[in-house]
Each structure stands twice: as C-alpha cells, then as structure tokens.
Amino acid sequence: MPRRREGKCACKGFYLERFVQPAVLLAVYQAPQHGFSILKQLSGASIVPTAGEQPLDPTGLYRMLKRMEEGGLLSSFQQHTDAGIRKVYGITPQGRECLRSWYTTLRGYRDGIDELMRRILDTVGMENTL
Description:
The chain has 130 residues and is an alpha+beta fold. The protein contains four helices and three strands, in the order αβααββα.
C-alpha cells in the first residue's frame, strides 16, 4: 500500500492533477499563451480544483506542458519580447480532439460523483456539514 504524505489525503482534494490537463487545453484553445500566462489564468479559476488554499504548482505545470507537447496535444513557438524569449503554447488538432473527449469524461465523473455523494448522504448523513 503506498504511503500517504502527511496531511495530503485524497479526501481533502489532493491528487486532482488530472483535472489540470483539460483546463490547460481550454486555455490554449481560447488563445495561444506562454506558461506563466497559463499559470495565472488557471490559478485564478475555480475550474481547476485545488486542495484548500494550495496554489497550482508552477514546476508541475511546466512539466505537464512539456509532456502535453511531447504527446502531440500542444505545439509551441518562441516569441521575442522586451523581457526576453518566451515559449508560447497552442493547441493542436489532436489537442482539440482530446479536449472534446475530456468533456465526455468529465460529465461521466460528475454523474458518478453525484451518485456517490447521494449514497454517502443516505448512508452516514451529513448533519454537521449541511
């Protein structure tokens, strides 16, 4: 059985990184963006579940961008600015298809979560939290 990091229980919202991928795809679908811009957009959005006040991990996001590019979901180009060179990400046709698939997947998750929540409420009740 894998060891749980102290205080980082999945029941508190940790380990939801997989939901970052569709949010990234949506962000770059709307407009090509550099990594820091994506980070700012996702950090301020409630569409990316995070554990309490834990912010989105910048290093993890940049690793994910690299994996998504290597996987053909994103493409990138170098943009020269006054601040230096930035890598700008855009969505590929494969990334667009992946985003469409995420919609179906997330709808299925939502339906399953709704059912599980109903069963928890029916079984153990939630008097103190409702």
